[in-house]
Design goal:
three-stranded antiparallel sheet, five-stranded antiparallel sheet, about 260 residues, 2 domains, 2 helices, alpha+beta, single chain
């Protein structure tokens, strides 16, 4: 069989994967906290035909996908929402959230939070935001004195102002952020959540925002997607043309094989 068939087929398969990644990036251009993904290619094992004075003679057999990585180095734009429980990280770090049903812990950069009926600070999916000592819980309306207002500070501290004029903090402590030495190892599990099932992600000890390389908390803001729409559309055109070019390679190889078959006629 002609090696060009293998090369063309492998290229079409990999460019199809690239088109899938680009399509997903474009689909999430307005998703809060979304990080764009990028596809990296590598050549496959070459066939050695022999050697001469200049060295070995090799013919490549195609291309493969070496990695698909998310771009955590480029932050998304911080957009004001006017909601004090909407939180953005201006810099490095992830919020830590926990599923109250399963106890599973995840990290996210989507700070679309709210206070539920039980006073817990939760994600849009009902997961509880974790503080320095557990679930962050605000006083409910039945508490005495009642809570008049609250503020989130850049260092993660939460200040509650009570109806009698006193100030306190919610149970669960203040917001802490989780960092990773290799965030590319994080696994997406949907709903803007990530998990690190092994030590490959380089899990670091949760720390105080706005210190030790962690970003500052901005209340009333959300970090939007970091997808560069113009760049994605350019990559889409490039991938489409590359796909078409490799389909021509397969068509030409097929014509050559057909010519060989017709020789016997």
């Amino acid at each position: 069989m002609l090696l060009s068939l293998d090369s063309g087929l492998s290229a079409m398969e990999q460019f199809q994967q690239q088109l899938n990644v680009i399509a997903n990036n474009i689909a999430n251009v307005n998703t809060v906290g979304f990080k764009a993904a990028d596809v990296n290619f590598a050549d496959t094992l070459s066939q050695t035909l022999g050697a001469n004075a200049a060295g070995s003679m090799q013919i490549g057999t195609g291309v493969t996908t070496s990695s698909i990585t998310s771009d955590f180095s480029t932050p998304g734009i911080l957009t004001a929402t006017g909601q004090p429980t909407d939180l953005a990280i201006n810099g490095n770090g992830f919020f830590v959230v926990k599923d109250p049903s399963s106890g599973a812990t995840y990290v996210t950069q989507d700070g679309t939070f709210s206070i539920d009926n039980n006073g817990y600070l939760v994600t849009s999916g009902g997961l509880r935001v974790q503080g320095s000592s557990g679930d962050i819980q605000f006083p409910t309306s039945a508490s005495t004195p009642s809570m008049s207002s609250f503020t989130f500070n850049a260092d993660g501290t939460i200040t509650l102002t009570m109806s009698d004029g006193s100030t306190t903090s919610p149970s669960g402590g203040n917001i802490e952020l989780q960092s990773f030495t290799n965030p590319d190892q994080l696994i997406k599990v949907g709903d803007n959540l990530y998990t690190a099932p092994t030590a490959a992600g380089g899990l670091a000890t949760p720390g105080k925002p706005n210190s030790d390389g962690l970003g500052a908390i901005k209340s009333g803001y959300l970090e939007m997607s970091n997808v560069d729409l113009a760049g994605e559309l350019t990559s889409l055109i490039t991938a489409q043309r590359a796909y078409e070019a490799n389909s021509k390679v397969i068509t030409t190889s097929d014509d050559i094989l057909q010519t060989l078959v017709n020789i016997k006629r």
